Structures are given as structure tokens and as C-alpha cells.
Amino acid sequence: MGIEIGITCLLLAALTFLATVDMAFGQLSDVGFRRLIAEAEEQPIARSTPFLKEILENRPRFRITISAVSQVLLVATSVLITSISQQWFPNLRFILIALFAGITLALIFRQLIPRLVTLRNPEGVLLVVLPIMRPVYRLVSAAASPWHRSFDRLRRGRPVPVSADEDEDDNGDDIQALIDVGEKEGILEEEEGELIHSIIEFGDTRVSEVMTPRTEIVALPVDATVREARDIIIDSKYSRLPVYREQIDNVEGLIYVRDLLQCWPEKREDEGIAALLRPVYFVPETKSVSDLLEEMQKAHVQLAMVIDEYGGVAGLVTVEDILEEIVGEIEDEDTEGEDVVEIVEADDGYYDVLGST
Predict the structure, then answer these.
(1) In whole angstroms, what is the distance from residue 85 CA to residue 102 CA?
(2) Is residue 353 in some structural domain?
């Protein structure tokens, strides 16, 4: 009987150890797991790093192995406790009570103790048990080879076809989940998470979402003089303005402030600006901003006119508008220190809200 009690204690200890490892790994996300690998490389247990990377590449198989062996240990412990109870208590009623107590004891070692141990710091627990876990896993992995074969057969089953759109949505959700985990665990600052999220959504953003609308365009008529153009550019603080003939839908080119400055020393301020016009770049409002940014880089242009489906001017877009979609509002140096009121209460009980709020 003493041997059986000793074996039971060993099985309970092994059950607690494997359950603790399983529960600690279950509480770690992929981000936390990679951070654990980085911490392991900086400590004396660096030789365990390849083992951690192996687990990261095949976490389901690792969890199945540990869970399967834990179940076997749980059953073996229950059988031994029943055998010991039969020797101690010949009465059937006492045997049932002892069996219930044994199962309760096994569940405490299988669930309660591992949960309490790993609740606060699963990474720290894993760093402590890694030197022991590596040889143990090699041993139990060999014992659990039947489960491995069954698992591999299931994985080799025919995959369910997934459309490209669904796959892209799933990837986006996975990346967003990683961002949320990174922010929660302190790996990413909130601003960094927002920046990554903006980059992810960048490819889905259309020009119409970032452009300056038609009603807010500052433009010049083609018959304006150099002096008039200079005054409007000074008031608007823009370095480039579209130039139109008769109406804004007929944009004939762009006027650059540096071209106007070249005319000023030559006393040409009363001349027209038609001779100074540069070609204008037109883009449809449905174009992706990522494609537009690439085109503008290749064409070496900073401003493009946006046209709608009927060929009319819908707005204009600059490289700065596109970059602000990623990094947020970019203020010029002459606006630094100005307080922009985003929400203003009107007299009629309504509120005026800045569009970028």
C-alpha cells in the first residue's frame, strides 16, 4: 500500500505540473509568447529558446499532447485512489465516499492549484518551468503519438474554400486583434496602435474621403494678374492654387508661388498668370489613396484635381492630405500654438463640430 500511495503522490505532482504548464500557455497570446521568447534569450535558459519557437509554430499539437497526458494521469490517479480506498475501507459506502474525495482531490490538483499559480504571471511561471518542461515534453510527446497521428489526419482533411474577400477580412481582424493585445499588454502605446490601424485601413480609403471638397477650394481665374494671384496666395497661405477658365470645372493648370516670386523683381506684377501655368494632374474620386500616392510620387506632383463620374471637379487632394490619413493632422509651423476649438455651442441649442474631430 505504501508503494501505491507514493505513486499516487507522484502522479498528482506530475498532473499539477502539466496542468500548470497547459494553463500558462493557454493564457498567452502570440504577442505574449514572442515576448516570452525574447525574455528567454536574455536569461541563462537561452538554450530553451529553440524549444519555445518550436511550440510557437505548432501550439495546437503541444496543447493536445499536454492535455491528453494530463487526462491519462487523472484517470490513473483516480484508479489508484479507488484501489487504496478498497484496502482501507471494506465497506462499499466508505469506498464511494473515498472515491468522491479522491476525484475532488485530483480536480484540485488539476484545476485549482494551476489556476492560482498562473493567474498573475503566466510568463514568469513558464520561465521557471522551461528547463524541466523540455525533456518532459519529449517524453510525453512520444507517449501521445497516437493523438498526434489523429490530429494530423484531421488537419490534412479537405479545407473549406474561403473567398479572397473573406480571407482579407479575417486577416484584418487578426491584425486588429494583435494590436488590441499589444496595447493591453503594454507593448504598444495607444498612439502606436492607432497608427498601425490607420496603415491597415489605408489601402481601403478612397480619394473622395480625404480630398478638400469643391466648395472649399481656393482657385484663381485664368485672367488674374500676378499681383492678384500673389494677394490670394498670401491670404490663403497655399503654395499652389488651381487656375480655371470661367468656372471651376474648367481647370487649366496650377500656379506655383515660386513662379510668382520670379516675376516680382522683374516688375511683371500687372501681367496675366496664363503664361505661368503648370500642367494639372487629374484623378477619379474612386481611386485608392495608396495607388494615388504611388502615382504622385512617380509623377513628382504634390497636388491633383479630383473629378467625379460626370467629369466635373469634385475637389482636390495633396500629398499632405494622404499622409494625414496615416499620421493624423499635420499643422504648419505658422499655426503652432493656436488653439483650435473643435466643438462650439451655437445660440440655437445646436453644436458646431469641426469635421476632423
Answers:
(1) 9
(2) no
Number of folded domains that form the chain: 3
User: DSSP letter string over 298-314?
Assistant: HHT-SEEEEE-TTSSEE
Q: Domain check: are 134 and 8 in the same one?
A: yes
Same-domain status, 223 and 287 = yes
**Lowest pLDDT segment from 120-129, 156-165, 287-296, 299-308:** 156-165
CA distances from 203 to 209, 242, 284 (A): 12, 27, 16
pTM score over 0.85 = no
Provide the b/e sequence for 203-230 (b: ≥16 CB within 10 Å): eebebbebbbebeebebbebebbbbbbb
| Grid cell in block for residue 102 | 479522491
DSSP, collapsed to helix, strand or coil, labels residue 287 as coil
Nearest to 76 by CA among 20, 137, 9: 9
Residue 313 phi, psi dihedral angles, 5° rounding: -75, 125
User: Quick check: is 32 in a domain?
Assistant: yes
Angle between helices 145-155 and 59-88 (to 10 degrees): 140
State residue 309 phi and psi, 5-degree precision. -70, -20
